[in-house]
Every structure is written in structure tokens, then in C-alpha cells.
Design goal:
182 residues; alpha/beta; Rossmann fold; 8 helices; 19% strand; globular
Length: 182
């Protein structure tokens, strides 16, 4: 089955556009029969995304550490939920359960997970495509920083190319889909 790991916020942010994005992206995943793999929470963009997949007949696998099950209010209606002991276990299992990765707007946790997947790709620990859904210019400053890091010689051009970016959900799925999503 197709599976996409999605990182996004445990809050919804101030602009309702991000909530709409998470909802619409969830619906799109369900329509395309792509299983959502995510952090298992029922709050924030994570909850909106998971609910949208489920409401549209899709499948959702959550992975949440026991200590976050209360903080992020673990989702109780998922197709499958894995409760693990640590953040390290969470990230490793989510990677194992997925065929590709995409990040939506979020905070430190979203960036932590995104950059870990990029680092693992750079080190050859996986060959999964990694994407960024840059809606409303949310990640523009981050992308500028990445370009600066490349220009200053800390990120190689081919490494910078590991991150696929689009402002359009259909387009980012098309970029990630051809060879990698089963």
C-alpha cells in the first residue's frame, strides 16, 4: 500500500489557511489511496489532517511516544496506532512505515523531523524522497537559509537538491510519487 509520512504542527497557527491546507491535503491523500503515517496526535494540524483522511475513507497510521500520548492527545480513531517509548523510536518507526516524506507548516518538532530525514538521506540511510509543501510562503525564509548554507559551502548542491519544494499539494505528490510511493 502507498504510504506518506507527513510532519506538521501540533497547533493550527494563526492563519486558517493552514487548517484548510491540512484538511484538503488529507482529503487528497484519501482520494489517491495514500496511507497517512504521522505523529498520532488529535490536535493541531496533525488532528485536522488525520481527521480529513479518515472522513474521506482513507487509512491512517499514528506513531506517538507514551509521554506525548497525553500532551498531544493521542488520536483514538486511527486505522492503526503505535505507542512507543521515545521520540527516537517514533521517528525511526515512522520512517520504516513510509515510502516518502512531506512537511506542512509546523514548529520546532516539524523542522526537527524534516531535517533528520534529510540528514538520513544525505548519509544514505534511506532513499525516500523528501518534500516541503510551502503554502502561503510559510517556509520561504527557511529556503533562503538553505540557499545561503549552500552558497557558504556548508551544504552541497546535490544535498540541497534532496528537498523537493512546491506550493501545490498535487504537484508535491507528483514529485514524490513516480518511483517511490508503492
Amino acid at each position: 500500500m502507498k504510504s506518506l509520512l507527513v510532519y506538521c504542527g501540533a497547533s493550527t497557527g494563526h492563519n486558517k489557511l493552514y487548517t484548510e491546507l491540512a484538511h484538503d491535503f488529507g482529503r487528497l491523500l484519501a482520494e489517491k489511496k495514500i496511507r497517512l503515517v504521522y505523529g498520532g496526535g488529535s490536535i493541531g494540524l496533525m488532528g485536522v489532517l488525520a481527521d480529513a483522511v479518515l472522513e474521506n475513507g482513507g487509512e491512517v497510521t499514528g506513531v506517538i511516544p507514551d509521554f506525548l500520548n497525553t500532551l498531544e492527545v493521542g488520536h483514538t480513531r486511527l486505522t492503526q496506532m503505535h505507542i512507543v517509548k521515545s521520540m527516537h523510536e517514533r521517528k525511526a518507526l515512522m520512517e520504516q512505515l513510509s515510502d516518502a516524506v512531506v512537511a506542512l507548516p509546523g514548529g520546532f518538532g516539524t523542522l526537527d523531523e524534516l531535517f533528520e530525514m534529510l540528514t538520513w538521506s544525505q548519509l544514505g540511510l534511506h532513499q525516500k524522497p523528501v518534500g516541503l509543501l510551502n503554502v502561503n510562503g510559510y517556509f520561504d525564509h527557511l529556503l533562503t537559509l538553505l540557499d545561503h548554507m549552500q552558497a557558504e559551502g556548508f551544504v552541497k548542491k546535490q544535498t540541497r537538491g534532496l528537498l523537493h519544494v512546491s506550493g501545490n499539494a498535487e504537484e508535491i505528490l507528483a514529485v514524490l510519487n513516480p518511483k517511490h510511493i508503492r
